[in-house]
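Aim 2 progress update. The chain analyzed this quarter is reproduced below.
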Amino acid sequence: MKLLVALVVVGVLAVVAFLALRQGPAKQESSPQEAQIEQQKPSESSKSSEQISEQAKTIKAQDISGAAGVFTFSAEVPSHWQAQAVAATEAINLYDPNASGATNLEKSQIFIRNFKANSFLTLGTVTIHEQGDTTINGRPAVRYDIEKKPAVAQFANQPSWRSERHIVTDVRVSDSNPSIFYVIAKRPDLDDTVYRHFLESFKVSASQAGFTEPIDELRSRITKKPFGIFITPENSPVQPERFRGYHTGVDVEYTDKPDVDIPVRSIAAGQVVQAGRAAGYGGVLVVSHKIGDETKLSLYGHLDPASLAKVGSEVSAGQQIGALGEGGSAETDGERKHLHFGIIKGQTVNLKGYIQNKQDLIGWEDPLSFIE
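Predicted structure tokens:
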């Protein structure tokens, strides 16, 4: 009897083993560690962002053949993109040569137009689904989610997607009225990361942003003292020399025109915050400018004190604020006829024309780079 029971048990075990072999090994579930690793894989969006940063190239509107003169921006785009001017709509088309489409307009990824106005405008031809204020590199901007109204004809000489629902960012170029506005439209299926990178790198040249040169022949007449040069009585290109240190501005020479009135202009819209006489300058004037979210001060030295605009007065870009003083007189504190032109960062007036420590130049900007 015991032998019979043993044989039955052995038989049952054999059947179980046989069935287990037929079913194959049990499927293993992912461990919590493996699941965590799976979740930490980078998304396609973050991969795209890394690729853009590594492979982007800078385009400059002024380098695009046939582009309208109002376009003076630069920005980064994927390295294989191309740019073309669209004369019929005074626009710039940024397109992907590898995209589908029979024409470059149909391969468009970002399409940029412009208009001139005192404030942001919206057309009656589109429905605005959403809008919000923002800034693009310090410039006021508005982001719109728009769609062409059904009764309106397709927009001519533009990509077909401009007649579909898409995102547009309008950027105000200058603080003056009227101002140029750029209308930067995004193809609906373009990766948001690419569009954001374009806007983050988008820069408008200072001249288009409402800046002008403070005096005629600015660059050609900076022949002795550029920004940052270290001056001593021994090495100075001006003799005799009474100053020593690093130059905080640029000197624009006019000794060859002693009897000619030379006007000096504000480089941008702003308010006169100081005007009068100061040691080392004679007549000096300072204008405060709001540049995006920042304040900059422009300083004009060696002016005729009698010609200065009044403190508190509002001035516009290119408006005359004074005239060069007479060389060798009290109007220039005994200095030659020239303009000392400086750009001070922040809101605190600093009349120093020279500083003793080079690292302190961080409180000023190179005027030529600033107004380029």
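Residues 65 and 108 are 17 Å apart (CA to CA). Residues 230-370 form a domain with the Glucose Permease (Domain IIA) fold (CATH 2.70.70.10). These observations will guide the mutagenesis experiments scheduled for the next reporting period.
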